[in-house]
């Protein structure tokens, strides 16, 4: 009796192998799930946090940063990948200097003429951990993530950006993207 | 052939030589790893073998040590969050939560209710992703090449969902002290809703393809039996201890967040072997899906980040706090000491994988090499978490 | 006999070319099938549907530096891959593709194949031993234990068929079978066929019996230290061995070139391809068995079953002869 039970069990165990073959056989005939990358790209990279960029719109100019060079981002950054260089006030012309001195003499309050937007906004992507702390702590809403996931370079210096320059250059027609990524989407 | 094949020069490193001192005559000292297909990264296990049998095994750690605990001493609490995503790439949100929860406990910060639900949903999704990764990789260890592709197919869906709020796919830094960084929008919620039945439909396929497979059953049944007492002694947690029949789950034993309001079971298995741990993890798929389903229904409207959430310059109040969450691999604990200064004075991370790995030396003794691989896989180790 | 000699010569050249081609095609098929099972495309970039990918890989392998580990035995180390590949050429000689379409007509064709396929073990052993690598050594030990064990049920199941056919000549065995599937030996010898296929998997070190090169345990087993064409030859030999065992199975059990409508060689190739496809599917579906289980399957199941099958077969063969005489 036991032997028969054993034999039946063995057969049913071996049947599990057939079941496995049926699963792989089924998937063999089903459509593929992969996206053939260089020719097609996935469609959901919009929500991906790529590298940082400065948001334009400072002084009503879409290509001037909203950044007010307060340095909060650099302070907040856990990996110290941001360096903000403030613009120096332009040297006043003699007339302006005169007017300034006059105003001071009259006891008027003088306005600091230094522009707020940064001279340089150096961003080291190779250090960045894309946590978003800088964005959350920016009082001016001047930072955002790009959806750019296709960044590659040959050396560390390729990932050292001046975001101000990058923003300014973005008004020029961008150099033709390498043919790799047509906007074709997939179901994934 | 003995290990001392090269008499005129010192072969091997400190660990090997130290290990070889107590070697038996005629045994073979074998270094599994740090580069080995089944050690998932850079775990190194020195084993002493007699033919195919393992006489002794000793894990060697430290190949992926990144000083996370030290880094916590030079960063403010809010700045340390990105690190937590890198401790365990499998279940990054669990670590996020453990740290953020500890800081909240220390500072007495209340988290908005919606944020709690968002945390539970994303954390459980991440747990699913982690278990899927384990499932695929474990079967790869056992020589089945295809399951990992199916697992990644499903995991990809989870990552796509999680990518929307978190912005990343693996090393999330999504939780914030006092909430989460971004709310789950309607599109994301509907995708999660669609994912649950889809995942449920996939589970029978897993069973057919692998769980019931006679070869797999013969490979993992009765292998690596860990008595509950041994589990306790080594501080094992998570599916490892539940696979030995002890229903220890931080979500129930030391409830946090909204878990007490949710209805779910703690799957356990009395088999105590690799099969038991396998079954527990497979059963946890269903439980995680249940939790997510309930959360979706119960989730209130509201903010996801408390008003006046700590900025990077925020100083934690003086004191200490310990907070533990249930990660995919077990109890993730974070212990904080703050002296009221800019940075936290001390941050101790309790990685479940570390305790689970320490079982390996005990369990693998006397097994054959293939079983050792099966045991190692059944512990579900993520090396960066062990080394920290 | 010069005619015979020329025939062998032509056969050898044809075999050498076809082994290379089969190797390339099989690599492509394996990767493509594996890809589709796993719901990905497999190779698709080089050539139409990636058909030239194996060729590119082979060229890469040829171009790679031949590397030998320190303190390895240079002669044995390089002998092993050659030794694993050379007998394969011989194995193809007695295979009958069609009626009269074989390179070497020997009465003991089966014996020749079995004898020379036994040589493959030696090369694995040498390769693993000479590498001066612990994984290689373990892999070699496994290879020997496995191949020696699995040769026996393989032989016994083959013997059962040749009892029925009354010949060890493959062409004769094929001729003894009819056109339709119910005339084939698989109908009279289903158990022998099963045993043969399982043993063949073990004999060719294919998954789920790929213990000697079990990558999650032994990294790559006996060929851990081989690079470039050294590895390439092992690789090619594995696929060639697969073809041989499938071809023998076809000839013995599936009626060889017999089949309706289509010409003989086409049927033969079709059947062989089908069996190969099955082997590929096995590999990408099942986990690997454990080493002691592997030997248990052999000694506790296949061996007794094969012996019983052989006894039963010989009994019925004798009975058939007896009744024939009486009539």
CATH class of chain B: Mainly Alpha
Q: Percent range for helical residues of chain B?
A: 40-55%
Tell me the Rg of chain C in angstroms.
20 Å
Q: Beta-sheet strand percentage of chain B?
A: 5-15%
Overall domain count of chain B: 1
Helix content of chain C: over 70%
Largest sheet of chain C: none
Overall 3D shape of chain C: globular
CATH fold description of chain B:
Cytochrome-c3 Hydrogenase, chain B
Radius of gyration of chain B: 22 Å
CATH architecture of chain B: Orthogonal Bundle
Tell me, briefly, the overall form of chain B: globular
Structural class of chain B: alpha+beta
Task: Report on this structure.
The complex is a heterotrimer of chains A (188), B (388) and C (327). Chain A is α+β, with helices and mostly antiparallel strands. Chain A has a domain at 45-169: Alpha-Beta Plaits (2-Layer Sandwich). Helices cover 30% and strands 10% of the residues of chain A. Chain A contains 5 helices and 5 strands; from the N terminus they run αβαβαβαββα. Chain A has helices at residues 2-29, 72-76, 94-105, 133-137, 163-169; strands spanning 52-54, 82-85, 120-124, 143-145, 160-162. In chain A, the strands form 2 sheets. A 3-stranded antiparallel beta sheet of chain A has the order 2-3-5. Chain A has a two-stranded antiparallel ribbon with strand order 1-4. Chain B has a single domain, classed as Orthogonal Bundle (Cytochrome-c3 Hydrogenase, chain B), CATH 1.10.645. In chain B, 47% of the residues lie in helices and 12% in strands. Chain B has 15 helices and 8 strands. In chain B, the strands form 3 sheets. Chain B has a 3-stranded antiparallel beta sheet with strand order 1-2-3. In chain B, β6 (319-327) and β7 (330-338) form a beta hairpin. Chain C has one domain (2-326). Chain C is built from 13 helices and no strands. Chain C has helices at 2-37, 53-63, 74-92, 109-117, 119-130, 134-165, 170-175, 185-188, 190-203, 215-218, 228-253, 264-285, 291-326. Chain C starts with a helix and ends with a helix. The relative contact order of chain C is 0.14. The mean pLDDT of chain C is 81. Classes of the chains: A alpha+beta (188), B alpha+beta (388), C mainly alpha (327). Chains in contact: A-B, A-C, B-C. The B-C interface holds B 1, 5-6, 28, 30, 36-38, 51-52, 139-146, 149-150, 153, 209-210, 213, 215-216, 218-219, 368-371, 373 and C 34, 37-40, 71, 134-135, 137-138, 141-142, 207-208, 210, 214-219, 283-293.
């Amino acid at each position: 009796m036991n032997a028969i039970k054993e034999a039946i069990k063995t057969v049913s165990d071996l049947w599990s192998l057939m079941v496995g073959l049926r699963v792989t056989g089924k998937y063999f005939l089903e459509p593929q799930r992969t996206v053939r990358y260089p020719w097609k790209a996935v469609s959901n990279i919009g929500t991906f946090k790529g590298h940082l960029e400065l948001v334009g719109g400072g002084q009503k100019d879409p290509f001037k940063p909203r950044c007010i060079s307060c340095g909060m981002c650099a302070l907040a950054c856990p990996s110290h990948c941001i360096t903000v260089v403030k613009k120096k006030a332009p040297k006043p012309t003699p007339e302006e200097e005169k007017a300034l001195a006059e105003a001071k003499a009259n006891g008027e309050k003088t306005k600091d003429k230094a522009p707020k937007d940064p001279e340089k906004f150096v961003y080291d992507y190779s250090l960045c951990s894309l946590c978003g702390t800088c964005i959350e702590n920016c009082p001016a809403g001047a930072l955002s993530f790009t959806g750019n996931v296709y960044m590659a370079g040959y050396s560390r210096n390729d990932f050292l950006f001046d975001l101000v320059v990058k923003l300014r250059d973005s008004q020029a027609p961008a150099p033709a993207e390498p043919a790799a990524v047509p906007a074709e989407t997939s179901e994934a | 052939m003995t290990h001392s094949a090269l008499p005129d020069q010192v072969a091997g490193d400190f660990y090997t030589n130290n290990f070889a001192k107590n070697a038996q005559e005629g045994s073979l000292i074998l270094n599994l790893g740090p580069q080995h297909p089944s050690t998932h990264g850079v775990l190194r296990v020195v084993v002493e073998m007699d033919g195919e049998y393992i006489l002794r095994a000793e894990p060697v750690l430290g190949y992926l040590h990144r000083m996370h605990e030290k880094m916590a001493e030079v960063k403010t609490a809010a700045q340390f969050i990105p690190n937590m995503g890198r401790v365990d790439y499998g279940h990054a949100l669990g670590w996020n939560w453990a740290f953020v929860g500890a800081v909240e406990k220390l500072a007495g910060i209340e988290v908005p209710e919606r944020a709690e639900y968002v945390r539970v949903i994303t954390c459980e999704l991440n747990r699913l992703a982690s278990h899927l990764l384990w499932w695929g990789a474990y079967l790869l260890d056992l020589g089945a090449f295809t399951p990992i592709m199916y697992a990644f197919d499903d995991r990809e869906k989870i990552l796509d969902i999680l990518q929307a709020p978190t912005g990343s796919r693996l090393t999330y830094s999504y939780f914030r002290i006092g909430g989460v960084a971004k709310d789950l929008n309607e599109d994301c919620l509907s995708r999660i809703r669609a994912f649950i039945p889809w995942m449920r439909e996939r589970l029978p396929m897993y069973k057919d393809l692998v769980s019931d497979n006679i070869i797999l059953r013969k490979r993992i049944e009765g292998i690596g039996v860990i008595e509950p007492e041994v589990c306790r002694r080594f501080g094992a947690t998570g599916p490892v201890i539940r696979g030995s029949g002890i229903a220890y789950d931080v979500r129930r034993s030391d409830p946090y967040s909204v878990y007490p309001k949710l209805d779910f079971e703690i799957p356990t298995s009395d088999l105590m072997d690799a099969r038991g741990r396998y079954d527990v993890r497979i059963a946890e798929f269903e439980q995680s899906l249940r939790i997510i389903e309930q959360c979706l229904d119960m989730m209130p409207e509201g903010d996801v980040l408390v008003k006046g959430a700590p900025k990077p310059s925020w100083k934690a109040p003086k004191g200490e706090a310990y907070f533990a969450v249930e990660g995919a691999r077990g109890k993730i604990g974070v212990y904080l000491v703050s002296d009221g200064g800019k940075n936290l004075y001390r941050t101790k991370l309790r990685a479940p994988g570390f305790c689970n790995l320490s079982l390996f030396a005990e369990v693998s003794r006397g097994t054959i090499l293939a079983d050792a691989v099966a045991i190692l896989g059944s512990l579900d180790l993520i090396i960066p978490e062990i080394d920290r | 006999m010069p005619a015979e000699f020329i025939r062998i010569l032509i056969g050898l050249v044809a075999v050498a070319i076809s082994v290379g081609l089969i190797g390339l095609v099989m690599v492509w098929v394996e990767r493509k099938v594996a890809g589709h099972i796993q719901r990905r495309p497999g190779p698709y970039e080089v050539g139409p549907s990636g058909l030239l990918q194996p060729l590119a890989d082979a060229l890469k392998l040829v171009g790679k530096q031949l590397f030998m580990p320190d303190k390895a035995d240079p002669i044995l180390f390089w002998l092993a891959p050659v030794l694993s590949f050379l007998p394969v050429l011989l194995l193809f000689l007695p295979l009958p593709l069609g009626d009269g379409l074989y390179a070497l007509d020997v009465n003991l064709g089966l014996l020749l194949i079995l004898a020379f396929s036994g040589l493959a073990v030696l090369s694995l052993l040498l390769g693993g031993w000479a590498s001066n690598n612990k994984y290689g050594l373990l892999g070699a030990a496994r290879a020997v234990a496995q191949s020696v064990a699995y040769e026996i049920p393989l032989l016994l199941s083959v013997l059962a068929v040749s009892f029925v056919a009354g010949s060890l000549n493959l062409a004769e065995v094929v001729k003894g079978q009819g056109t339709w599937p119910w005339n084939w030996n698989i109908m009279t010898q289903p158990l022998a066929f099963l045993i043969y296929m399982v043993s063949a998997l073990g004999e060719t070190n294919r998954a789920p019996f790929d213990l000697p090169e079990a990558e999650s345990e032994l990294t790559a087993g006996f060929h851990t230290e081989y690079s470039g064409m050294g590895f390439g030859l092992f690789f090619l030999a594995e696929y060639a061995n697969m073809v041989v065992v499938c071809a023998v199975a076809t000839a013995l059990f599936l009626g060889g070139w017999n089949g309706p409508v289509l010409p003989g060689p086409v049927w033969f190739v079709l059947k062989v391809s089908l069996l190969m496809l099955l082997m590929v599917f096995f590999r990408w579906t099942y986990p690997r068995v454990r080493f002691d289980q592997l030997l248990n399957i052999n000694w506790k199941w296949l061996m007794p079953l094969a012996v019983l099958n052989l006894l039963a077969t010989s009994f019925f063969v004798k009975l058939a002869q007896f009744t024939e005489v009486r009539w």
